[in-house]
Write a structure and sequence with these properties.
This protein is an alpha+beta fold and 85 residues long. Helix content is 27%, strand content 40%.
Length: 85
C-alpha cells in the first residue's frame, strides 16, 4: 500500500468568537479566517440585547499550529472580546 504524502488533510474544528455587534464585524472575522488559509464550512451568528455578537464557525484546520494561527488572527481584530475552540 502506498500513501499519498503530497495530499494535505483537514479537520473540522468549531471556533466560537465573542465580539461587538457592529457593521463589518462578520466580514472582518471571515476575512481573517480565510487569510490564514482556513475554509469556513459553517457559520452561525447570534446577537444579544447589549449589542454583542456570538459567532460559531466550523472551519477546516490542518493541524494544531494552523488552529493557533487562526485564533491569534481573530484575537487581533478590534472588537473581538475572546475566541474559544
Amino acid at each position: 500500500m502506498e500513501w499519498d504524502s503530497t495530499k494535505e488533510y483537514s479537520y473540522p474544528v468549531r471556533i466560537r468568537v465573542y465580539s461587538d455587534d457592529k457593521k463589518g464585524m462578520l466580514a472582518e472575522i471571515s476575512n481573517s479566517i480565510s487569510s490564514h488559509e482556513a475554509n469556513i464550512k459553517n457559520a452561525r451568528l447570534n446577537t444579544t440585547d447589549d449589542h454583542k455578537a456570538i459567532g460559531t464557525f466550523e472551519v477546516e484546520i490542518r493541524d494544531l499550529d494552523h488552529l493557533k494561527k487562526v485564533i491569534k488572527g481573530l484575537e487581533k481584530i478590534k472588537g473581538v472580546d475572546r475566541v474559544e475552540e
